[in-house]
Amino acid sequence: MDHAQILIVEVWVPLPFRTPLSYLFDPALAPDGAAPRRGARVVVSVNNRRLVGIVDRTSQATAQNDCSRLRPVETVLDTIPLLAEQTLDLMLWTARYYCSAAGELLQLALPPALRTSSRLQQSREWLTVRYWRLGRAPTEEASGQLQGRKQRELLTALQTAPAHQIEHGHLRSLGFGKAQFTALETAGLIEEVIMDELAMEAAKGEEEPQAASDGPPAGHTLNNEQKATVEAIVSSDGKFAAFLLDGLTGSGKTEVYLAALDRLIAEGRQALILVPEISLTPQLTARFEKRFPGLVCVYHSGLTDKQRLLAWNDIRLKKKPVVVGTRSAIFLSFTQLALVVVDEEHDSSFKQQDNCRFNARDLAVVRASNQSCPVVLGSATPSLESLQNAESGRYQLLRLRHRTAAFARPQIELVNIRSRKLTGGLSDPAARAILDTLQARRQVLVFLNRRGYAPALFCQSCGWIAGCSRCDSRMTLHRHDASLRCHHCDLRLRLPTNCPECTSGSLVPLGSGTEHAEEALQALVGDDIPVIRVDRDTIGSTSALHDKLELVKAGEPCVLLGTQMLAKGHDFPDLTLAVILDADGALFSGDLRASERAMQLLTQVCGRVGRGEHAGRVLVQTRLPSHPLIAQLLAQDYRQFALNELELRRQLAMPPYSSMAVIRAEAASEAHLQQGLALLASQLKTVMTQQHLGDGVTVHGPFPAVLARKKNRHHGLLWLIASKRATLRSLITGLMSQPASPDRPRSRALQLPGRTGRHQPFSWSLDIDPYETL
Ligand SMILES: Nc1ncnc2c1ncn2[C@@H]1O[C@H](COP(=O)(O)OP(=O)(O)OP(=O)(O)O)[C@@H](O)[C@H]1O
Ligand SMILES: [Zn+2]
């Protein structure tokens, strides 16, 4: 083989490999003789599977390369890079930082239609777009013959459009139709162009500036705090700066993002707004769309494959400069970011909980830094990590201390329910407050973070409790379909009528979930007042939630009942009472972040009321009125809470004052689990000794996971805590190069350790900067 002509193409494939795979490419065989460019897609085969991969690098084969062992690239799908350089760089950075496979991130960086080999043809069809443009040689005579007003309007539209062309669909939406197209085409004044958008590269630089729009509807007149905040953000235009926007619930953070965007995207650049879950906040998206009509693109996994492809491409080609998306949107192909916003930055949904366990909030900072633009992390209840970054000066702290509403803060009262009778979880004082509020024609929010009818089913004669046969957990009673369900593995059983242990018929539900609360609330308020339940069981689709929330927005008296779905950023001016049915549920967990999470959740619920013209009131039902966290909730000083909590973490040398990784292991049996974890622990010791890591790092465990048995697999973990991030890195890198098991040395270290499959006797994975630690 003549090495001089053969190229070696390194390709990332969507499999858990640590390095790209090498393939041969013979330019002589390519139709245009060109090598595939970085970021272009190719089809390659891996273990007889044909996969779509992304080109990382192409180089000349040398005599050192053993080309006979390499397979050829099967097809080059793109002549241009489909993934922006910036996205590819971020993928590689993410894979390195989180010790995972860059190729697997392709699933997030490319929409499904572009990476599934059976959909490739269809994706091309979806991206073929019809345009009309000015004819090449319109004659004077032809122009003179223009008949109708609409024909002249169409011509003017094209004359003033960038590149003198406009998409067919867009023209139709402007009211132009077949009559005008045919007439002008016949006269040679316009012509049709069919374009393969997948083969188009994004406009570079300022070539095609996209004005924010012709006078977007202005927002509120900003108050002084908001103005100062916007100025601080805008003054970092064109350079990297990270801001923590710490603003009370309802202090107008969203208004700040909008105003900053207004100033920053004016020059045709892009902006990314990351939100926890789009389906939960249709209102937020609507606010962006209203302010930037036609310029907002929404990107999340709830879209159909086609919608996702078109949205992805609009973003790539910079047709829609404002992108509102969930965590995977961080991997979109932006080339010219002017601003990145992470709304509700404390939210757990920014952390991916499987495969590559990245935190999109942290990647937002990395991406902004790579692309030299400001990034704003906003929250009323900032994470301790971000607060610490602000304290240490890494992030600039911006504060909004005043609510925009007429009333500063809701009034919070405790209801001690230790010896009270509850109906569907509801105490008498809470019931009275609800009725009073509805009487005054206002709305009520009832928060209960537990779905189903009851969290347990109990036999009064023998004490049996329904448990899951596959997990160490209780089954939840769902009454609407008379089932018992495990919320961990989704096992579903018919509700028994008799106790399976003692056959007695005295089975009773224990405790209350939202289904029970709904029943009790409806009985309390009567049939005329709607009780709107929002939880995972009632919200099948985005539109279902949207319809329910519209009902609340209409302002009629109603009761909005639900789980944490309701705590996320909703803005309903007529909500004046919130009832937290069971504050204690949030207080018991040994997790590192348990208090932080509980405080954030409860504070956010309290923040949903009193946002309009009327004062808000919150009733907190608890059996532990003197619990310190409840006291801090009453004080309504999240910041003080956070500072105390930070001090505690500092004393314990826990994150954010140290770097942490969790090794999660699962096994077919307890014996396999113990054996596997013991091996890992001893390998960690070996690495620590070899590399003299000494006091810099501590390994805790092994210990069982909170749910020690889940889906019939046994779960356990190890904690690695280091004073410096670099030490943790050395330890992890060292561990990765240890043999997978004593009798099975890792041959080429290509495959990531521990990711050999969920059905192995023993497997493990790494969680760097874990959100959940148990
Ligand atoms: N300067 C202002 N003048 C009058 N009203 C304002 C102003 N800024 C914001 N608002 C209104 O106040 C309400 C709360 O603002 P916004 O939703 O921006 O707050 P937020 O801080 O994002 O809230 P949260 O974090 O609780 O979701 C909204 O209805 C908004 O329209
Ligand atoms: Zn189960």
TrEMBL record:
<keyword id="KW-0347">Helicase</keyword>
<dbReference type="Pfam" id="PF17764">
    <property type="entry name" value="PriA_3primeBD"/>
</dbReference>
<dbReference type="InterPro" id="IPR040498">
    <property type="entry name" value="PriA_CRR"/>
</dbReference>
<keyword id="KW-0378">Hydrolase</keyword>
<feature type="binding site">
    <location>
        <position position="486"/>
    </location>
    <ligand>
        <name>Zn(2+) 2</name>
    </ligand>
</feature>
<feature type="binding site">
    <location>
        <position position="502"/>
    </location>
    <ligand>
        <name>Zn(2+) 1</name>
    </ligand>
</feature>
<feature type="binding site">
    <location>
        <position position="471"/>
    </location>
    <ligand>
        <name>Zn(2+) 2</name>
    </ligand>
</feature>
<keyword id="KW-0067">ATP-binding</keyword>
<dbReference type="Pfam" id="PF00270">
    <property type="entry name" value="DEAD"/>
</dbReference>
<dbReference type="InterPro" id="IPR014001">
    <property type="entry name" value="Helicase_ATP-bd"/>
</dbReference>
<dbReference type="InterPro" id="IPR011545">
    <property type="entry name" value="DEAD/DEAH_box_helicase_dom"/>
</dbReference>
<feature type="binding site">
    <location>
        <position position="468"/>
    </location>
    <ligand>
        <name>Zn(2+) 2</name>
    </ligand>
</feature>
<dbReference type="InterPro" id="IPR041236">
    <property type="entry name" value="PriA_C"/>
</dbReference>
<feature type="binding site">
    <location>
        <position position="459"/>
    </location>
    <ligand>
        <name>Zn(2+) 1</name>
    </ligand>
</feature>
<dbReference type="Pfam" id="PF18319">
    <property type="entry name" value="Zn_ribbon_PriA"/>
</dbReference>
<keyword id="KW-0235">DNA replication</keyword>
<dbReference type="InterPro" id="IPR042115">
    <property type="entry name" value="PriA_3primeBD_sf"/>
</dbReference>
<feature type="binding site">
    <location>
        <position position="489"/>
    </location>
    <ligand>
        <name>Zn(2+) 2</name>
    </ligand>
</feature>
<feature type="binding site">
    <location>
        <position position="499"/>
    </location>
    <ligand>
        <name>Zn(2+) 1</name>
    </ligand>
</feature>
<dbReference type="InterPro" id="IPR005259">
    <property type="entry name" value="PriA"/>
</dbReference>
<keyword id="KW-0238">DNA-binding</keyword>
<comment type="similarity">
    <text>Belongs to the helicase family. PriA subfamily.</text>
</comment>
<comment type="subunit">
    <text>Component of the replication restart primosome.</text>
</comment>
<keyword id="KW-0862">Zinc</keyword>
<protein>
    <recommendedName>
        <fullName>Replication restart protein PriA</fullName>
        <ecNumber>5.6.2.4</ecNumber>
    </recommendedName>
</protein>
<dbReference type="Pfam" id="PF18074">
    <property type="entry name" value="PriA_C"/>
</dbReference>
<keyword id="KW-0547">Nucleotide-binding</keyword>
<feature type="domain" description="Helicase ATP-binding">
    <location>
        <begin position="234"/>
        <end position="400"/>
    </location>
</feature>
<dbReference type="InterPro" id="IPR027417">
    <property type="entry name" value="P-loop_NTPase"/>
</dbReference>
<comment type="function">
    <text>Initiates the restart of stalled replication forks, which reloads the replicative helicase on sites other than the origin of replication. Recognizes and binds to abandoned replication forks and remodels them to uncover a helicase loading site. Promotes assembly of the primosome at these replication forks.</text>
</comment>
<feature type="region of interest" description="Disordered">
    <location>
        <begin position="203"/>
        <end position="222"/>
    </location>
</feature>
<keyword id="KW-0479">Metal-binding</keyword>
<feature type="binding site">
    <location>
        <position position="462"/>
    </location>
    <ligand>
        <name>Zn(2+) 1</name>
    </ligand>
</feature>
<keyword id="KW-0413">Isomerase</keyword>
<dbReference type="InterPro" id="IPR001650">
    <property type="entry name" value="Helicase_C-like"/>
</dbReference>
<feature type="region of interest" description="Disordered">
    <location>
        <begin position="736"/>
        <end position="758"/>
    </location>
</feature>
<dbReference type="InterPro" id="IPR041222">
    <property type="entry name" value="PriA_3primeBD"/>
</dbReference>
<keyword id="KW-0639">Primosome</keyword>
